[in-house]
Amino acid sequence: xxxxxxxxxxxxxxxxxxxxxxxxxxxxxxxxxxxxxxxxxxxxxxxxxxxxxxxxxxxxxxxxxxxxxxxxxxxxxxxxxxxxxxxxxxxxxxxxxxxxxxxxxxxxxxxxxxxxxxxxxxxxxxxxxxxxxxxxxxxxxxxxxxxxxxxxxxxxxxxxxxxxxxxxxxxxxxxxxxxxxxxxxxxxxxxxxxxxxxxxxxxxxxxxxxxxxxxxxxxxxxxxxxxxxxxxxxxxxxxxxxxxxxxxxxxxxxxxxx
Length: 258
Description:
mainly alpha; MetI-like fold
């Protein structure tokens, strides 16, 4: 039990300190410094911070939607393919997950720069970030959906065929209801991964597409850790927690309804 508590302290202690310092008036642990919500107000009032939050949400939503759709299609293709094809494709799916983010980000940057020089398309900006995020989010969705498809009873599809159900009816009345909790969980997972990503975003961003992680990195490099940065980080942590709780509630309600 003691080891478990030490593990919890090690995991959540830094987060608690971030919240603590974000409310201190002086930004230090002084006894008489007092508490204030000024740093949260300053963060919200900053046009740069608001733009960074908007870019982060736009990037996370756009890439998560695309990755969920493409990952589901890929998972269905793997399910329908032969064992040999699945074995070969699995290595390609795992590669973006196990590859270091900095290598992935540099490779994306070089690729987009090469395309831009040759065609004038894909200049560094929000679109290049969306494409880069989809490439590392897609494997997570594909693996989660594929795992769910593998657990389905094959007789269910045979029963649909016996009841004269075509592919569209099988999709609407079988696959979508069964996969809905998995799809919601996959979307929220990759949304959170995109929201918190720094490395890949840093290498594929343009001057007008700064996200919150990039803003925090630049601000810390220039001014160090300030109370305002603690406040912004606290907001980001609370957003991640809220997304996780919402996903858990939605999945539970969807399972009960089905």
